[in-house]
Protein 1
Amino acid sequence: MLVGLISDTHGLLRPEALAALQGSQLIVHAGDIGKPEILDELRTIAPTFAVRGNNDSQAWAAALPEKEIVEVAGGQVWVLHQIAHLFRGAVGDRCVAVVFGHTHKPWTRAVEGVHFLNTGSVGKPKDGHWRAGYVLLSMGEGDSQPEFIRVDYDIERAMAGIRESELPDEFAEQLRTGGIPGRS
Ligand SMILES: [Mn+2]
């Protein structure tokens, strides 16, 4: 089973990222969604589970949980926005992955058979690379494997859009440098 893992859209889900998630049989969003339409779009691809991020404070998000345990063939995927909110020792025996976001920086460690996965951000990565980031988690009995994926989009057009908008012009440069000044 292929599980698409994304986080930190903050209201922005580029068509290229949506297309890249096609084929996922299940989608998990680790919070800071931004607006409910993002979940509507994801649900056109596959059943979608989402948690509330610290920026999802509007009324539409009130019903979303802060932590979700998703039962999948092969085990459980635990989802929360900020890894700091997971208490030590709280992961159950059947957990194979803990999915989170918040920092906009992709990261992973495997600890005693559990993949801890920060999916990065599809909207605005902050790891020095502009391409939209997400994870495909391939799950099977006794075996699960994450693949970190980066998706091309028209960065020049996105930057032009920011400059034409009310947003500060430097946001365009921050997008291009992936949040690391001086990076080309
Ligand atoms: Mn956040």
Protein 2
Amino acid sequence: MTKKVKHLLGISGGKDSAALAIYLHDKYPTLPVEYYFSDTGKELDDTYTLLENIESYLGKKILRIKAAKNSHFDNPFDHFLNSYGGYLPSAQARWCTKKLKLEPFENDVVKNELSISYVGIRNDEDREGYISKKENIQSIFPFRKNIWSEDVIRSVLSNSNKLFMAEIALDTLKNGSVDIFTDLILKDVTESYPQKRKLNDLLTVGIKEFNQIVFNSLKDKNLPLSYEDVFPLVDNEDGLNRNDIFALLEKSGVGVPAYYKKVEFEVDGQKGYYSRSRSGCFFCFFQQKIEWVWLYEQHRELFNKSLEYEKDGFTWMSDEKLTDLIKPERIRQIKLDYIKKTERQAQNQSSEFLIDTLIEAEGVGCNACFV
Ligand code: SF4
């Protein structure tokens, strides 16, 4: 049965979602992708520049959405901060992502309709991203060799589903690889043969074939792709890594968000480079100490605004107040520690975007805000 399915891509202001917009536009021009951006009201200017660049490349508008539209506060973050009694968000109490990103997405973009949400997590990352718990939203990961979300893979590879999946494989594959696929599908997931290995084995035999088997197995489910007759990404065998993303952005002319650009600093006669590693709110609690120093030295007005939020015992970092972080001796130490850390890690890295790799790899974060 065919039903209307929305194809959605959230632009976060980060490099990966920007690259995914370009990638889908170029590689799947007939896919009716709708683009949206959830504005927290506390973004860097560079994010808005990136949005404009993407719009001119796509020749299409990015839908701007904002939570708490009717609030008397002039931005959503302050509205919800007030309703949470001034309690600043943190990795443990991340009300901001839910209120500023996820709920506006579900309420103003998805609106209870069947929706495929494309997520720009790369092939060189080992994380899953935002998976909606709602059945009408299905996440797809075009940059990964495994385009499917964890819930789909868990169901497809589960021991209790193996006979059904083997039958689907027999119906789907007409070529010689059917026996290899069915043998693998019939193998139980065990402690010594974990799901991840089974998945890798199947992808190694044939990505397109595996995707077609998964796609056909969804027909009797109630997921958005259950209602699509064809899905062009089934044929996608690409796996895009970090350097591919930078290359794609540069080649398209959209460019890398300006906050990624390395800025040189000097401390005790030693040179180092810092930048910001991610999009999202300028005061995001996920940023590292060196990024706070970058904000202090490169965007003093934004740092001062961040400082104003630290009151009534609430701080952005659990172990340090911003007023302590900007003491000259503390800044010196943070820079020296950072230089030492990057030098140590540089011995094991070969990326031309080393500084960014290091900064990002050390952080954890929020997929809805940073991808
Ligand atoms: S960028 Fe950080 S502070 Fe802003 S909504 Fe996302 S997690 Fe929260």
